[in-house]
Automatic annotation (TrEMBL):
It is found in: Mitochondrion matrix. PROSITE patterns: GRPE. Keywords: Chaperone, Coiled coil, Mitochondrion. This is GrpE protein homolog. Its main location: mitochondrion. It comes from the Eukaryota. Belongs to the GrpE family. One of its GO terms (molecular function) is adenyl-nucleotide exchange factor activity. Essential component of the PAM complex, a complex required for the translocation of transit peptide-containing proteins from the inner membrane into the mitochondrial matrix in an ATP-dependent manner. Residues 53-98 form a coiled coil.
Length: 208
């Protein structure tokens, strides 16, 4: 959307520029014609009537005013165009970061959801295929965690911890018996921090 607005502003800026150029050419042609007429007529010719001279001045003043107005509009459109470009660049940077975050954390989130959704009572020797799948997912998740930790990236899973707005983002509040108000009682999505700097806050529910 921002790119479409930018293109529209570019086209409008071009139209304004062309209009200013045409007006400037008209003024120049008018001046040249006046000069040619003065050179063709002998110096003994009678001077133009005062009312004609006044009309010419009024016309020139009007054209100059129109040129100034068009220049002002052109500058305004150029400013809007630059702002649209900046907004588009900011949007592109945000989308790029979101895509990058999804690539980094998406696998971890999928693995966590997959292992959590497996019924623990079904993991037994009676169901070897499910057991092998579950153990494989757990091993993959652990290896991924080791890679993250080796590079200073650590998960933030604050269940039963005190809510910290620096590391957590509260999605809702609910009353939970036996829990101190302000404690994290639900973790909807774990967060991540890189060398104690929050990369993604944990999405949590807080007791009240």
């Amino acid at each position: 959307m921002a790119l479409m607005n930018a293109r529209g502003l570019i086209r409008l800026g071009h139209l304004v520029t062309e209009t200013i150029t045409l007006n400037a050419r008209s003024i120049t042609l008018g001046t040249l014609r006046t000069t040619a007429t003065e050179q063709t007529n002998p110096s003994t010719d009678a001077p133009p009537p005062p009312d004609m001279d006044s009309k010419i001045k009024e016309e020139l003043a009007k054209l100059n005013k129109e040129v100034a107005t068009l220049n002002e509009k052109s500058n305004e459109l150029m400013d809007k165009y630059k702002r649209s470009l900046a907004d588009g660049e900011n949007l592109r940077n945000r989308l790029t970061k979101q895509i990058s975050d999804a690539k980094i954390y998406g696998i971890q989130d999928v693995l966590s959801k997959a292992t959590e959704s497996v019924p623990k009572e079904e993991i037994s020797d009676k169901n070897p295929h499910l057991k092998n799948l579950y153990e494989g997912l757990m091993m993959t998740e652990q290896q991924l965690q080791n890679v993250f930790k080796r590079h200073g990236l650590e998960p933030v899973d604050p269940i039963n911890e005190k809510f910290d707005p620096n590391f957590h983002e509260a999605l809702f509040q609910q009353e939970v018996e036996g829990k101190t108000p302000g404690s994290v009682v639900v973790v909807s999505k774990i967060g991540y921090k890189l060398h104690d700097r929050v990369i993604r806050p944990a999405l949590v529910g807080v007791s009240k």
